[in-house]
Task: structure prediction
Amino acid sequence: MIKRKILLVDDEIVFTKNMAKLLEEREYRVSAVNSGDAAIKALEADDFDVVVLDLKMPGMDGITTLREIKKLGLFTETLILTGHGSIDTALEAIKIGAYDYLTKPCEIDELVEKLEDAQIQKDSGEQKDMADKIQRVVESPSAAFELFEKKKKK
Amino acid sequence: MMHKADKKNEAPETTDQASHIRSYRRLFRNFTLLTVICSLIPLLLVGWGINAHFADFARERMIKAFEDRIDSHRRTIELFLKERSDKLRLIAYTHTKGYLSDPENLKYVYAMFNSKSPEIRDLGVIDAEGDHLAYAGPYDLLDKNYSQAKWFAEVMDKDLYISDMFMGFRKKPHFIMAVARSENGSHWILRATIDTDYFRSLVENVKIGQTGEVYLVNKNGVYQTEPRGAPDIMDHAAFQVESAQNGVGVHIYKGGGQKSGFSDEIVGTAWLEKPRWLLVVKQDYAEAFADVNHANNASMLFLLISALTILVVTVLIARLMIRMIKKRDIQAEYLNKQLMQTGKMASIGELSAGVAHEINNPIAIIQTERQILLDYYNKQKPMDSDAFRAQLLDSMDQIDIQAQRCKRITQNLLRFSRRTRSIIESVDLNRFIGEVIELMEREARTSGIKFIPELENGMPPIESDPSQLQQVFLNLITNAIDAHEEKSYGSIRITSSADHSRQGVYIRIADTGAGISEENLEKIFDPFFTTKAVGKGTGLGLSICYSIVKQLGGDISVSSRVGEGTEFTLFLPFEMPEAVTKGEGSPGENQTPMKKAI
Result:
């Protein structure tokens, strides 16, 4: 089975370390970064299935980071995991395009469940995109060439 | 929790009320005094003026009336005497001595004389030698010789003679009228005695009140009629007749008049033409001026009633006014309390959001440590492996670290919430600022903001209210952090320095945030003024800071440059002003800038 790739973004180093350990125990591949900037860099460098994002961070905060992630135009889904008890901020995050939110502290099982849901969402998004592409290639074979060119550039 | 806090504040509030009551009393006193002075002084001046004018006028009228009365009475007496003397003269000149010497004829004339009223007592004809030729009257005087009588010499000298009162042969006070006539070279006299009773009744029976009396005095000061009261007719009057002026004179004698012979009386005098008698009319002053005095008293009573009415109305109005002011004050105080409460709740809300985040992080870490250990257990990995042991120790350490972190946060929070009661105590400002920074540090750090404390060493502690100060610092620092919203990093510089010349401490909180435009800077301390989005800020924070700092006897000012940052400068005195510590009780609960506007 292919291991899902998770990106953890939180300024609490101990927390990300522990969380990585727990998720790895549950058959995930985990990268942990401690700021928004680092998260964007990691996403640009590698493919991830789900990003787990804290909202309150020094430097670039969670909302800004989320906006930047969305700008990248990836299929990667984002889960908000924050200690900040404000529902307003979480709702704002969902409006911007986060998949869901969880508040700290949360049970690992709960997080895994949300990660699975986010995974399904991501997969269906990819499948739909793939179907679109196939449709386009079927309709005009030159599109296949375009797609190929695009992928090569990337 | 709130109720408890309220109850604790009761004690200072009672001293607060006492000072309020004192100030209300002062207001009441001042208002009453001012109104009474402003209304009573003009009233009394006008009243006094009118009264004096009226009294003067009434006195003049009174005296004039008295004069008129004397004059008319003098005329009456003169007319009476003139009429008698003219009659006597007519008889003397129209009848011969021979005719009148006949007793029958004389009796007839005497009877005719008295036909209407008993005008003369007797009538006699006397020859040049002073012997009675004939006599008509009740006395037996026919054999009397008058050659030695004083009047006889005078009448022989003058054409008509009217005597003063004298006793004569009959030994009764009387006066005579005599006409001398020369007939064929021989002189004879027609003499009539005026009926004393009739004359006296004419003179004396003038009704002048209860105390008024009228009498005549001759030029030697001998009573010619009998005054009511002590002296008898023919006695010497006690007063100086010579001093009486010609014509009619009215004098008012007040007090014991030893010299004048009158006391507390109004006295009018007039000389008769012939005989030279002085008509005296006098009346007790009190009675003569009873009407004037009555009017005076009435106006005084009116004045008194008016003054009393003004007094009562003033007091009532002042009371009403004070009651209204009190009511307004209570309403204002109530609103202020609510405002303060709202501000407090808002800052507690803001703080608790921060604290929740703070506390959730360590808890989340503790939870993950537990989960890691639990994973070992669930997966049935060997529990005696080195890896597990290392993990267990690591987890335990981490749990301890995170628990300590939680403890520190809750302690800070407790310290904050415990300071809800207003107590004036000695505050080490530098330590205090350190605590506040600690409370806010994480919040600041997540926004990329560094605190740069520059605290003067060895600063003396100040007398202040730590709970209120805390609110001020939290508000100012929260604002400073919020000012960096558009920036990813910044700093908040907190400077403290003692100023011994001003007996206080300066604290400057300077941020590197967005700054405040000049037009907003003016309104920054106004209640409900905010530039934050709706629902984000109450607009109360700085207005509360302002009122608290003023309460604590200090000062707060602000300077700012758009894009560069804002600096708040606080001044706090070493010692609280007395009014704050004694009179005002718990200032935070019931004092705001609004109060000062009242």
About this structure: Strands of chain A lie at 4-9, 28-33, 50-53, 77-82, 100-103.
